[in-house]
Specification:
With 138 residues, this protein is of the alpha+beta class. Helices cover 26% and strands 24% of the residues. The longest helix is centred in the middle third of the chain and has 13 residues. It holds the Pfam family Acetyltransf_10. This is GNAT family N-acetyltransferase.
Length: 138
């Protein structure tokens, strides 16, 4: 069993530099500094996974505050992956999800095989009734 006692979850959105580094180094699509500076303050909730003073993981909930919410930015630096730390992040986000309005729609886009993690927290695949779609601004 892996000893994760040195890690801790802080209920805060990561700093801009940490956010950009975590997205890039964990393999998520990077965003411009301008986009991150505009978007992060509008988060509904965020967590930072800490090892000492270093931010090594994160997760956020974004949305309109009432009807629609999305779990996003689940990222852990590669050197810290495979320790069950994403479950910690999802547990913290799930605690907040449980307080949302009962009619709220909470969604996420799952990269395989992370869909098995999200299923543990009550997320169901929506296909074939609906499928995720995206449009990238270029």
């Amino acid at each position: 069993m892996t000893d994760n006692s040195a890690y801790r979850i802080e209920p805060r959105v990561p700093a801009i530099d940490d956010y950009m580094r975590l997205r890039l180094e964990s393999g998520l699509t990077p965003f411009s500094r301008e986009a991150a500076e505009k978007g992060l303050p509008n988060s509904i909730f965020g967590v930072s996974l800490m090892l000492g003073e270093e931010t090594v993981g994160m997760g956020r909930i974004i949305g309109d505050g009432g009807c629609f919410f999305q779990v996003t930015d689940i990222a852990i630096l590669p050197a810290h992956q495979g320790r069950g730390l994403a479950k910690w992040i999802m547990a913290a986000l799930s605690d907040v999800i449980a307080t949302l309005p009962k009619t709220a729609y909470v969604s996420l886009i799952a990269d395989v095989p992370a869909n098995t993690l999200y299923a543990q927290f009550g997320f169901d695949e929506t296909a074939p009734r609906s499928v995720g779609m995206a449009r990238k601004v270029v």
